[in-house]
Design brief:
elongated, mainly alpha
């Protein structure tokens, strides 16, 4: 069971990283930026945004909601890992709190 929880957390953290990056890209579109970051935005607009097949505002809102949803899912998995056996210790509670 610990292996399944670890794999689930790794997948959720990976998805959180990806959705946070895309959310940041949408937040920075239209601003005056350094050349390197502007190249990232241009590449994103050409290769990724065209495949989403939704409007820019809808995609930005979806990524913002997805980021919050993934944070809540990570909190639920951490809570499950701590509270599943019914015998809680102070160390387990601190690990869950510090993990979030």
């Amino acid at each position: 069971m610990n292996f399944a929880i670890a794999i689930t957390l790794i997948v959720l953290f990976g998805l959180l990283t990806l959705s946070s990056y895309v959310e940041r890209v949408y937040a920075e579109i239209g601003k005056f930026l350094s050349r390197e970051f502007q190249e990232n935005i241009d590449c994103f607009e050409q290769h990724v945004e065209s495949r989403l097949k939704v409007s820019r505002s809808r995609a930005a809102l979806s990524m913002a909601i997805l980021t919050q949803f993934l944070i809540a899912a990570i909190a639920c998995v951490m809570a499950f890992a701590v509270f599943r056996d019914g015998n809680w210790s102070v160390e387990e509670l601190l690990e869950a709190v510090l993990g979030l």
